[in-house]
Design a protein that fits this description.
Radius of gyration: 14 Å
Helix content: 10-25%
Mean pLDDT: 97
């Protein structure tokens, strides 16, 4: 059975910045066809739950209060990639628009809700290393 990475918040883990989850029955049902490795790069990077929201701006990750959290996001992305390698995952289903997991679109760093083309830190690292990354709205493409 193929093994894939899945954002833990999409599976029901309360690990988002706001301390909540975003469970998706469609994504939870993937467990019937795949071995699932739940991941949360932000937690792996050492950030607490809940935490101040962050967005990507000027090549770094900054919190709403101006703190530079780039190091934590890079650390978490590295740990997620390590899990992909350990478990032989060539596919990941990640939370859209997240500064860690966003794939294709992320918030612009102004905390205004404006979206721009781009990937979160973890999604970009996984892609760079050959992992196919899909946002939760694209799971039918697996």
């Amino acid at each position: 059975m193929k093994t894939i990475l899945v954002s833990a918040c999409l599976l029901g883990a309360a690990c988002r910045y706001d301390g909540k989850s975003k469970p998706s029955p469609e994504i939870i049902a993937l467990r019937d066809k795949y071995n699932i490795i739940p991941v949360c790069p932000e937690i792996y990077g050492g950030l607490p739950t809940p935490r101040v929201p962050c967005e990507i701006k000027d090549g770094g990750v900054f919190s709403l209060t101006g703190e530079n959290r780039t190091a934590e996001y890079l650390r978490g992305a590295g740990e997620t990639l390590r899990l992909a390698e350990i478990f032989g995952c060539d596919t990941a289903v990640l939370k859209e628009r997240s500064p860690a997991c966003g794939c294709g679109e992320i918030y612009d760093g102004s905390f205004s809700g404006t979206l721009v083309k781009g990937d979160g830190v973890c999604a970009a690292l996984l892609k760079k290393n050959g992992v196919r990354v899909l946002g939760e709205s694209r799971i039918k493409e697996i």
